[in-house]
Amino acid sequence: MTPTDLPERKAYLLHQKAEHQRNVLGVFPAVYPREILWSLNILPVEIWDPPVPIGRSAAHVPPNICDVARRGLELILQGHCGDLDGFLFPHTCDSIQNVASIVNDYLGTGKPSFFFHLPRESESRAARAFYRLQLESLSSALRKHFHRSLDTGMLVESLQWGQRIDAAIRTLYELRGQDRLDVSNSRFYSVLRAGEYLHPSDHLPCLAQLIETTGSAKPPKTPVVLSGVLPSPPAFLSLLDELDLRVAADDLLNCSRRLQVPDGPAGNPYEALTDRYFRLPVCPTRNSTLAQRVNRLLSLVGSTRAAGVIFYVVPFCDPELFDLPPLVAELKKQGVRTLVVEAGLNRQLSGQVAVRVEAFAEMIGSGAA
Amino acid sequence: MQPNLLKSLRYRFMKNLGAPLLTVLEQRRATGKRNRGPHPHFGPPLRCNARLRQLLTRHYFLSRYAKGAHPVAWVTSGAPVELLRVLDFYTIYPENHGALCGAKRMGTELCTAAEAHGYSQELCAYARIDLGHHFTGKTPAGKLPRPDLLFASNNICQTVVYWYRALAHYWNIPLVLFDTPFNYEALSDMQIEYMSAQLQEMIPVLERVSGRRFDVVRLQQIIGSAKECSALWGQVLDTMKARPAPMTIFDAFVHLAPIVSLRGLEGCRTHYRTLLDELRERVNRGIGALTVERKRLMWDNIAVWFKVRELAGMFAERGLNFVTATYTNAWAETGTMIDPQRPFESLARAYSQVILNNNLKHRLDLMKRLIREFEVDGLVMHSARSCKPYSIGQYDLKRILADQLQIPSVIIEADIADSRSFSEKQVIAQLELFFEAFEDRTE
């Protein structure tokens, strides 16, 4: 498997089931202890932006719900989750919370739902203790349901997989930030996001090969920082490529905010996983302060010499929409140029969005604009 | 924060002289208003309405002088305020203030002010009102004191976390969050331990901000009082089981303010005792909230604050009385879980099991119970654009209740405080259809 040869998601998960006797769990955004699932031979397949037409969900949820939660529900309602053995709902926001309850309490999917609370206080001893207990509780619930036994060796191996993936992704972001990775935005994020469904044993080689793609882009592209929830639809990244804008760093919920984890101590697997959660980059869904978020963005801009920040926002996403005004104001105060674009997932990119991004590219001096 | 002597004296002066004087003026104003003739569809108004106005006017009036005399906290409606009461915090409830702005038709103006600073119209109207107040200083309450602390719990929504983070950023003040894991399933010991530990962990922060020492015995007294307030509120709501019900849910929406804003304080307890006496007297004398109560309804979700009067009138003229609501019930349903002998654990239990921190199966069961106990004939669900946790799931609730209890229902699309999300024509059309179907099915 190579970065240019990523398998189609459905075929891949069927192969995983047949070949490796893995159970497959559909996982809603955003953060969850993937290592616990791997250690029990369960493949997490994340549900962020499934390319399904919107229809049936209108009978269950009002129009002002974010596209991520709506599309996840739509995927289930349209019967595309038949091959999944259950769902995992991390507690990320109000919309995902209630969609989870609709699925678990009302839909009668015949599949089990598992839940995971993400503590909102990073400095709290109680939060750390609770997170660790939840890891054990989730592991126990999964073992019980899927008739698996606790295999400490597998847990340690899974932890190592996770650490190697974290290290590879850290390297990739570093190379990207230094303009030493000659790949398009589209290619970079498609490989990164392949981790949403690939087993680590398949994802690691893809990441390793991408790291080998060193060399700076010719002609040089204008670096920007991308903030928001996720880089979808892919056409948005293609647009940035066409405009010679290089996403040198991101502050995306489904990318760096949960994948670009600083290196941490090894040790007891549960302790190490707990520690990993509390080392994640700042995020409004976990109650980081706005000052922390401003500092992170400024740090990303500074370290990559980015010419501006693009906030790419999913409509009705409360955590992002609440942060935007103070973030934009603080960045402006520091002389950082910003663009706010709101766009639905997996829809055609509107002409208006394209024009605004083009104008921004021109303003920050991108060669192709 | 050590109290400032001059500001403390000023606060005391206003409390002992200013506020009573204001109360007298308020009484006179209310007496003048009471001389209106009888309403064709409503029974005599509650005497306690005037008393409530005095109580709230006094609360907001004194809040202007609280800064410097008391530590001031802004608090979410579901946060365990009892901890703050121990430390003598003067508390302001932005949600209550948002409802006030909505009722006084100032909601849209303040929302627009927040939007002018970049806040999306898609966000909660209470939050936008609050941020609009921050940017403009405008409020129907005259003036709100700048807080020393923000105190929030995500047991009602995650939105309060994002909203209070913004306030904490603008004012550079601490935000203390009580994180309550959502109950997808039954509450576990692990969750209770987590929440109980958080409550104990936050005490040093509260002590630092208030400059006062925390006293567990005082906490036990206060939560005993809060429990009594909650029980009294539950009894007030229970009077609507009588036929005819002595008040409507629209009255209850208004009389909800003390249990939200003054929980655990003597003023709250006295108010509900007086209100309960009045309601029981009305029940004994057969005085209904409506002149004719033909059918009984349940309301789901927060009120449409800027249309309470119009909606109340529209239903009353058809003899339809709202006798219960999931919303008003929220401050009564978990009060029995509070145990002064186990303060932290019982606060964790009570505050984490409120309606919006529970799964939709729990809400369905609650609605079924309320429908049965209050002998409800129909259901009106407000799909509030502002409130996602309350509104996502209503379509399924409506369908299941119709299937299982054959109860007629309607969903109206509106908002809690932003009138731009209310289409008069559309809502009236939806309600007219409901009235027709309802009359056909329940005749």
Radius of gyration of chain A, in angstroms, nearest whole number: 20 Å
SS strand fraction of chain A: 5-15%
Quaternary structure? heterodimer
Average residue pLDDT of chain A: 95
The sequence of SSEs of chain B as H and E is HHEHEHHHEHEHHHHHHEHEHHHEHHEH
Compute the number of helices of chain A.
Answer: 14
Named CATH topology of the domain at 9-141 in chain A? Rossmann fold
Order of helices and strands of chain A: HEHEHEHEHHHHEHEHHHEHEH
How do the strands of the widest beta sheet of chain A line up side by side?
Answer: 2-1-3-4
CATH-derived architecture of the domain at 9-141 in chain A: 3-Layer(aba) Sandwich
Largest sheet of chain B: 4 strands, parallel
Describe the structure in your own words.
The complex is a heterodimer of chains A (369) and B (443). Chain A has 369 residues and is of the alpha/beta class. Chain A has a domain at 9-141: Rossmann fold, CATH 3.40.50.11890. Helix content of chain A is 49%, strand content 12%. Chain A is built from 14 helices and eight strands. Chain A has a four-stranded parallel sheet, sandwiched between helices. Chain A has a four-stranded parallel sheet with strand order 6-5-7-8, sandwiched between helices. In chain A, strand 3 (86-91), helix 4 (94-107) and strand 4 (113-117) form a beta-alpha-beta unit. In chain A, helix 6 (152-177) runs parallel beside helix 8 (200-212), helix 7 runs antiparallel to helix 9 (234-242) and helix 12 crosses helix 13. Chain A is globular, with a radius of gyration of 20 Å. With 443 residues, chain B is of the alpha/beta class. Chain B has one domain (5-442). In chain B, 55% of the residues lie in helices and 9% in strands. Chain B contains 20 helices and eight strands. In chain B, helix 14 (308-316) links the parallel strand 5 and strand 6. In chain B, helix 2 packs antiparallel against helix 13 (266-285). At the A-B interface, helix 4, strand 4, helix 5 and helix 13 of A face helix 7, helix 8, helix 17, helix 18 and helix 19 of B.
